[in-house]
Write a structure and sequence with these properties.
This protein has 211 residues and is of the alpha/beta class. It has helices at 12-20, 31-41, 69-75, 85-94, 96-99, 127-136, 159-171, 187-192, 202-205, and strands at residues 2-6, 25-28, 57-60, 78-82, 105-110, 140-146, 178-180, 197-200. It has one domain (2-205): Alanine racemase (TIM Barrel, Alpha-Beta Barrel). The protein is built from 9 helices and 8 strands. Helix 6 (127-136) links the parallel strand 5 (105-110) and strand 6 (140-146). The protein is globular.
């Protein structure tokens, strides 16, 4: 189980403290915010090894537009929000420089299980085609599927959506793929339904200012 600490709106010093306490995976919704934070967080505060920040894996958990693929490929180790063939192609093209350093980009296919018009993600029936496209991309590594359940006060209302993502994964030829699902309000249900990664912000860092 991987805990991705979502740090949207969280000050860099708070993130640094969380990393020092053992947070190894940091998730951001916005590319510009991630770029500013990563630049500061990775600065070496002093020559002594014990003063250097621990390395973390950076996850893009928010929507990715195709025209931002170049920046995303440079900044993130894992991208959870791939939802179209055109985005797969552009990410693979932009990842060439990174792969030359021996690093591929891990990719999750975002599936709109709930069918909500306000949510991003491919249709469930398109997940197999997208997963195959990522698997065939030489500079990308297919890690799994991701979904976002509709917000509800009762986390049990998210269970059917998480279960559906697991069923979609199990129906693919690549059934060993991981599942990225569950946030602060429903991650416990997601874990019960087989989540391999949970994306938790508020439950770790407290409420953030809207915006």
């Amino acid at each position: 189980m991987t805990l991705v600490g979502v740090t949207k709106g969280v000050p860099v010093e708070v993130i640094r403290e969380a990393v020092a306490l053992g947070l190894a995976d940091v998730g951001e919704n916005r590319i510009q915010e991630a770029r500013a934070k990563r630049s500061v967080l990775e600065q070496q505060p002093g020559p002594a090894a014990e003063q250097r920040p621990q390395p973390v894996r950076w996850h893009l958990v928010g929507h990715l537009q195709r025209n931002k693929a170049r920046l995303a490929a440079a900044l993130f180790d894992v991208i959870h929000s791939v939802d179209s063939l055109s985005l797969v192609e552009e990410l693979d093209r932009q990842a060439a420089k990174r792969v030359s350093r021996g690093q591929s980009i891990e990719v999750f296919i975002q599936v709109n299980v709930s069918g909500e018009a306000t949510k991003f993600g491919c249709r469930p029936e398109d997940a197999n085609e997208l997963a195959q496209a990522v698997a065939d991309a030489p500079r990308l590594k297919l890690s799994g599927l991701m979904t976002m359940a509709p917000f509800a006060e009762d986390p049990e209302r998210a269970r059917s959506h998480f279960r559906r993502l697991r069923q979609i994964r199990d129906g693919l030829a690549m059934s060993s793929l991981k599942l990225s699902m569950g946030m602060s309000q429903d991650f416990e249900v997601a874990v019960e339904e087989g989540a391999d990664l949970v994306r938790v912000g508020t439950a770790i860092f407290g409420p953030r200012e809207p915006g």
